[in-house]
């Protein structure tokens, strides 16, 4: 630039190149005054585009006081063309370098992420063909038959659409002297088969017959002794294989060899671990069976203890309550008789003595006469309430119903709600408790294990109450029952089922939690708050004991809804509603 500037007496020369990403010219070199804005407008400006082939790569801008001669313009245009060609070559080398690094990086990533050799080799031949712009790229294995004869198997290829496939196995005589060179790990680099003096006539004829003009072969050998090679072919014209192409293929060969070694190591590790995995699976199955038996034992003991306790409490309460309730009517009659006698005395003896008047005033006789029947009515209401609770406790325990019997499902739900009444009431500092909304359908009696089914309702309702603990909005539990006709592919007539839906407006749950909801010992509650057995036991009761279905529908922030579906009669297995 300095020589051009001095020779043409120029004030400034600026060379800019085109940024293909921003589509803007960026300054690369300056001679003379640097800032174009400071150059006087009286100066002359000359621009020569930098064009390599058909591509615009930049611009040369010159500033001077004198016009350029035709000879100078022609010379500058030639210089611009030379500069453009140089820039284009540099960019091509940089692009090839980046693509080479990208290919090796992708192969390395695939080796780290996958041990599928077929995927890695397919990627390798496709990337090499695209990067080097060759007509065909192969990967072949060198193998030996059972009798020790060598074979060359082309396992992966990338080719132009006009070319035929070479995916097959070849004996040595079909690939000429290349067979020995691949076997002895000797690289082959032929720029033009017609001028390659080191190529023997038979191999030259083989290549000429299929139209190959240039070829590049780099053999590969793994630590375990496996041999192969990557082969690149040019058909239409010769190819001057540069150092960069050879280095690229060497890098790919190294990565492929590493991948094969790792795959073999992985296969050996898997084979060594297979026996341990089988044993671990057996142990896991045994552990699962033990956990199931433990769950069943806990459920049996829990139900037995709970039923005995509830039945015992109901029995102990029932006797004194019946005694009190049974005596309320005679007490009402006695009190009414005494009040009638007192009224007669007041009528016949309107002027009692001072002692009696003082006593009447002391006991407030008129208030007693009015309030005493109300007290007896309150006692009767209270004893009736206690008797209802006793009946509910008996219905819940159902100790006398070890076999399936027709029962009223609504009665079992109501009994469970009565037992949970204390948890549904508002606690200190809360404005409202948990509202129960019932949408009961017209249901016949259902043949089931009533006590166990009540335990299912207890577990689901308890979980719903726990989920709404501490939330700002008022808690609502909606219970819906309905009769379904479920179709079966085995039977022409639909099978009647009872569906109980229990929905809460709690926080809901994630899909991960929902998918593990019925697993034994799975719980989201803090340590000491839950055993993780309630819903697992409920699932077994509904599915295994009653041949039904227990499922949950929930989304985070949208509450949860449990579906308890059982057949109306035993022996009918639950299916999807029709």
Write the layout of secondary structure elements.
Blueprint (H helix, E strand, L loop, with lengths): L1 H7 L1 E10 L4 E9 L11 E9 L2 E10 L5 H44 L3 H16 L3 E9 L5 E10 L9 E2 L7 H6 L4 E3 L10 H10 L3 E8 L5 E8 L8 H106 L5 H10 L1 H33 L7 E3 L1 H11 L1 H4 L9 E6 L6 E3 L1 H18 L7 E12 L8 E10 L6 H5 L18 H12 L3 E6 L5 E8 L11
Parallel strand pairs: 12-14
Antiparallel strand pairs: 1-2, 1-4, 3-4, 5-6, 5-10, 6-7, 8-9, 9-10, 11-13, 14-15, 15-17, 16-17
Helix pairs in contact: 2-3, 2-6, 3-6, 6-8, 7-8, 8-9, 9-11, 11-13
Q: Please, could you describe this protein's structure?
A:
With 578 residues, this protein is α+β, with helices and mostly antiparallel strands. The chain is built from 13 helices and 17 strands. β9 (214-221) and β10 form a beta hairpin. Strands 7-6-5-10-9-8 form a 6-stranded antiparallel beta sheet.
- Content-based structural category: alpha+beta
How big is the Rg?
48 Å
Global shape: elongated
Identify the strand order in the major beta sheet: 7-6-5-10-9-8
H/E series: HEEEEHHEEEHEHEEHHHEHHEEHEEHHEE
Question: How many β-strands, per DSSP?
Answer: 17
Number of helices: 13
| Biggest sheet details | 6 strands, antiparallel
Low-confidence stretches: none
Tell me, rounded to a whole number, the average pLDDT. 81
| Strand percent estimate | 15-25%
